[in-house]
Design a protein that fits this description.
InterPro entries: Bifun_inhib/LTP/seed_sf (IPR036312), Bifunc_inhib/LTP/seed_store (IPR016140). It comes from Oryza brachyantha (malo sina). Keywords: Signal. This protein is an all-alpha fold. The protein has one domain. Helices cover about 60% and strands about 0% of the residues. The protein is built from 4 helices and no strands. The protein has helices spanning about 1-25, 35-40, 60-65, 70-85. Helix 1 packs across helix 4. The chain is globular, with a radius of gyration of 14 Å. The N and C termini lie far apart (about 30 Å).
Length: about 100
């Protein structure tokens, strides 16, 4: 039960991050012409695979990921990398 609740929280957090990235990338003009938000919204198909211990992604998730333009992806990654400092938190180091 605790694991399923944790997975639900992780999935909800991943969804929130996607929404923030979509709005921020659009504000920075990452996709141009309103393209970035719909591209990032397609990543909702990947939300089940965002948590620890998740299985492999579905074909729908992989298709959504492959359809994101480089500009939109780079803007989203840039926003994600800048969030900790904007929230007065330490940078995340995954190495």
């Amino acid at each position: 039960m605790a694991a399923s609740k944790r997975n639900a929280v992780v999935a909800a957090a991943a969804w929130c991050v996607l929404v923030v990235l979509a709005v921020g990338a659009e504000a920075q003009g990452g996709g141009g012409g309103g393209e970035c938000v719909p591209q990032l919204n397609r990543l909702l198909a990947c939300r089940a695979y965002a948590g620890p211990g998740a299985g492999g992604p579905s074909a729908e998730c992989c298709s959504a990921l492959s359809s994101i333009s480089q500009g939109c992806a780079c803007s989203a990654i840039s926003i994600m990398n800048s969030l900790p400092s904007r929230c007065h938190l330490a940078q995340v180091n995954c190495c």
